[in-house]
Design goal:
Chain lengths: ~140, ~140
DNA sequence: CTCGTTGATTATCATTTGATAACTAAATGG
DNA sequence: CCATTTAGTTATCAAATGATAATCAACGAG
């Protein structure tokens, strides 16, 4: 397997993933939430509870800007901050009840579109897809 | 294979792809070019020659904004516009020599990082990765 | 105890991006 | 032909994002 060819395929593949992700999520993002705010909410939803620093690191947003956006999200009652007993500098962030409901609904819709996308796949194909995801995740898209 | 589980894996996977893509490309983008401009250049590099409308469609940027950004790129001598004989409304966009050189170097660097990422994979593993890319591209990330 | 580091906040500013309206020119379809 | 559609441009405005400096409190190592 020529590695240069593999790189070519990787480039095409990454573009396709971005495009499909966009396709699955477009027009779903709830009103009054900017793209960056949505991506933060998504991250919180999957990884909660998280600290501000974690959000900053993982989403590549500076601390001041993370703090600003999180403040807005808190003001919109979509997430909540909790003090950490062991380290009083830190704050843990979780989705509020309203935020959880909102993200649940969002994932519900995205999931629906995803299912529609794979609706023609047979059981064996689904198994193949599953293994392919594992392979790539561990060998290429790790860390 | 439970489809809901597959969706969960898809979400994690898409996030990993985004993250690794970011990792591979960060700090490489040449000076004086905004992220959106870079993504346009990338698209032109892979698909040239393209029309303004194609860029607008594929990158989800409105025509006025596409026109504006393309004008800036043209002023920076990174791409060139050509009239189309058959339809004088249209314009084909290509990278200029300088733009081509710049993008070649960029891809060179990204490719280096990619190779480093898969450097421990055996020949069989590379073949497995290759097939996994094909499977996902055709069954999940199509279109 | 003190110094350096970490986690977070506020304020401010420049830049980038997105959105809209108004317009030209060329094609296309009755 | 004339109306409509397509391709692209320009101008303008608002909003989102990124970057920086200054600050504060709490922790941790020596």
């Amino acid at each position: 397997m020529d590695k240069a060819v593999l790189f070519q395929k990787f480039v095409t593949f990454a573009a396709a993933v971005h495009e499909v992700t966009h396709e699955l999520t477009k027009d779903i993002k709830p009103d009054d939430i900017t793209p960056v705010q949505y991506s933060i909410l998504e991250y919180i939803a999957v990884s909660q509870p998280v600290t501000l620093s974690q959000i900053s690191d993982c989403k590549h947003i500076s601390m001041p800007n993370t703090s600003r956006e999180l403040k807005k999200l808190t003001e919109k009652n979509l997430c909540e901050k909790f003090d950490v007993a062991e380290d009083r500098r830190k704050q843990l962030i979780r989705l509020s009840a309203a935020g959880q409901t909102m993200m649940d609904e969002t994932f519900q819709q995205i999931g629906g579109r995803f299912l529609n996308r794979i609706k023609d796949a047979s059981a064996e194909e689904l198994e193949t897809i599953n293994r392919a995801l594992d392979v790539l995740q561990s060998k290429v898209f790790y860390e």
